[in-house]
Amino acid sequence: MPSSPTIGRPVAVLGIGSMGTAIAKALIEAGHHVTVWNRSRERLAGLTGCFVAETAVEACRDAEITFTCFSNLPATYDVLKQPGVVGALQGKALVPMSTATPDEVHGFQRFAQASGIDYLDAKIAVTPAQIGAPTAVIFFAGPQALFLRVEPVLRALAGRATLMGQRIDGAVLGDFAFLSVYFASTIGILHGAAFLRNSGLNIEQFFGLIPCFLDEINARSQSFRKMIVAGDYTDVQSALKTDLAGARLLANATANAGMQNLFSDALIELMQDAVAQGHGDLDSAAMVQAFSKIMSTPQPVEVPG
Under a CB-based contact definition with an 8 Å cutoff, are residues 108 and 96 in contact? Predict the structure, then answer.
């Protein structure tokens, strides 16, 4: 294994796809002693500065922290069930970074506890290219003491490594909240680009202005935060009924540009529902009231271990 600074810690990365590769590289660049393993050896081509294990159990044996980067938790179980892997992980930190549901992570927590593994759940809110960036966000959930124990390593992956709480589904729920922002904003950008292209206007100019749009959205989000925390939507920056009128104008312009109206129609439907609930004269932040529903505490289901 290549030499590293004395601050380096022995870590393993199982699953070297595009995300696993980015994670391994960030850990290597931070000076950690990295061991990698992947089912197919060809995925490891070009990955230098680390030790390549022949088996998953070999990768985990000397690692203080093991990151798994498989497509989902069932695929993670398949690897952990290989002979000797659970034994090699006992008493050490395991950080699965797969997509999952709340029920699945509750099941994985029971599996980890029964196996003597220190489990910290993780959900990644960036693309592989952003791993290691100061603004990169990765959500974590699990015991605070465990998070603090491994936090110096986690900071190599994301400047905004964020513990969402000790309830094990916190990272999953944080990731779903991120996806709400991600999907809505990216679809909005693509819809705007399509609108300008259909209208024969300058696409490059549009994309050059997007950072300015995002600054405005960020400023708006700060007013949303204050209103939602206070539960008071009367300090109106933009009334919901005004925004609804704007969405209707967008629908007309979209149709005139020869585009399908699914995006603008969805906006109108969401805003109309909130107005019908009596929020029309309040700030648009009051839509959070329309979105919210009383939820029962989810009952975790067993995931075969």
Answer: yes
